[in-house]
C-alpha cells in the first residue's frame, strides 16, 4: 500500500477522532451548567423527545467511540491481510487502498452525526436535521462511488485464470457487500434499541410518520437476514453445480436485499 494512501488514511482517521474528542471536551465543559435532567434524544424534526439524566449525554461519545474502534480494527485487517480475492498484485493493492479510504468516509459520517448530536445535547438546542442530512449526503455518495470503483478494480485486475471460473472475484465481492449491509442494519438496530429504551420502547418510523413499538424493527431485519441467507445458500449450491448464471442471479439478489433492508432500517 502506497505511502500517500497511508498518509491520507491517517489524516482522515485522525480528523474523525479529533472531531468526536472535541465534542466530548465541549460536553464536559458544559457539564456543570446543565441541570440533572436534560434532553438526550431527538425526533424526526430535531426536537427533544427523550429527557433523562445528563449522564446519558455521553451516549453519542460512547457509540461514536465504538464505531471508531470497529473501524480501526477493520482498517488494520485491510492493511495487514490479503482479501482472498483472485486479483493481480497491483489489483490487490488498489482494492485494499480503496476499501481503506472508503471505511474512513464511513467513519466520517458517523463521527459527524454524533458530534452534531453531542453539540445539541451540550447546548440543549434542537438538532439541525437539515445540517445532519446535508453532512451525510456527499459522504454517502462518495461511499457509493467508492464501492463502484472497487467493483471496477476487481473486474480490471482479476487474474486471467479467473475468467474460466466466472464466479470467483465478483461472487466474493457480492457476498462481502451483501453481508456488510446486513450487519450494518443490525448495528443500526442495536444503536436504536439502546437509546430508545429510554422512551417507552417507542421509535419514530419515517415511512408511517408515527411512533410505533420499536420491536417492529425486528421484522425487516429478520426478513433481511433470511433473504440474504437463502440467496447465499442458492449461490453456494450454484457454484458447486457450475451454474454461473444462477450464481450471478443469486449474488444480485443478495446485494439488492442487503441494500433495500439497510435503507429501510436507516429511514425508520
Strand content: 5-15%
Q: What is the count of distinct domains?
A: 2
Sheet with the most strands: spatial strand order: 1-2
Number of helices: 8
Biggest sheet, in brief?
2 strands, antiparallel
The strand count comes to 4
Distance between the termini: 39 Å
Label the overall shape: globular
Keywords:
4 strands; two-stranded antiparallel sheet; two-stranded antiparallel ribbon; mainly alpha
Secondary-structure topology with pairs:
Layout: H1 3-31, E1 37-42, E2 48-53, H2 59-80, H3 89-123, H4 129-156, H5 162-165, H6 169-196, E3 202-205, E4 210-213, H7 218-240, H8 244-267
Antiparallel strand pairs: 1-2, 3-4
Helix pairs in contact: 1-2, 1-3, 2-3, 3-4, 6-7, 6-8, 7-8
Structure in words:
- It is a single chain.
- With 268 residues, this protein is mainly alpha-helical.
- It folds into two domains: 159 residues; 108 residues.
- The protein contains eight helices and four strands; from the N terminus they run H-E-E-H-H-H-H-H-E-E-H-H.
- A two-stranded antiparallel ribbon has the order 1-2. A two-stranded antiparallel ribbon has the order 3-4.
- Strand 3 and strand 4 form a beta hairpin.
- Helix 2 packs antiparallel against helix 3 and helix 6 runs parallel beside helix 8.
- The longest helix is centred in the middle third of the chain and has 35 residues.
- The protein is globular and about 65 Å long.
- The chain starts with a helix and ends with a helix.
- About 2% of the residues have low confidence.
